[in-house]
Amino acid sequence: MENLTATWEWLSTSPLLALTLTVGLYWASDKLWEKSGRNPLLTPLLVASALICVVLVVLRLDYAAYASGAGILTFLLGPATVALALPLHRQASHVKEAAPMVLGAVLVGAFFSVLSGYWVTVLLGGSAELAASMAPKSSTTPIAMALAEQVGGLAPLAVLFVMVAGLSGAVIGPKVLDLVGVRDPRARGLAMGVASHGVGTSRAFQEGQTQGAFSGLAMGLTGLAVSVIITWLVP
Questions:
Q1: d(CA 32, CA 54)
Q2: Alpha-carbon separation of residue 60 from 64, 115, 181 (angstroms)
Q3: What would the pLDDT profile of 104-126 be if each residue is shown by its tens digit?
Q4: DSSP 3-state assignment of 196?
Q5: How much is the pTM?
Q6: Which of 41, 106, 153, 191 shows a CA-CA span of 20 to 30 A to 20?
Q7: Least confident range of 56-60, 80-84, 118-122, 154-158
Q8: Cα 203 to the chain's mean position, in Å?
């Protein structure tokens, strides 16, 4: 019994458990999503995140130890983001043709993202701190954290809003685009990248290379646009 306890104590703080848990649950969630006919409510990232939370709570695993163990996956986000340049390069001719559309979509999307995030929150009675934390929700997590602190918000709260924006866009974004009749793969990719950054981009790649390439481009440009626009729209 003592050996089992000692083994579990070692395993619960080992990177092996965090990596196995994360990769295994994502793999299972992906298989479930495929079997469900790609039901948007069963998007792998959403289901895997929920299952990981349940496992951490039920097994009483320390989140700091889990996050440290899964750090290699977090590190790989950097190379994965850089790798988005490859499909973008393959779509270079389409990007050049659609340059005005890309710039217009990014600027308008970034403008209304910050506008809705900050001023709608204020008009609904939210505090200035809450509104400032929500303003950069359409930029990626590192950018959102820095911008939130710059305009008087809270970085951890900004991360939460970024996650909500990403997951909600990945889950309902394609359905909304279908309902309003957006069929152009370039426009679909731009919409997902502007509204839902990296999570939306991963979902866009599931639709096709063109959608993914334009979404990755929009994600990067939106982070830059939000960084500039937020200083004008947020006091």
A1: 17
A2: 12, 40, 46
A3: 989 999 999 999 889 888 888 98
A4: helix
A5: 0.78
A6: 41
A7: 80-84
A8: 10
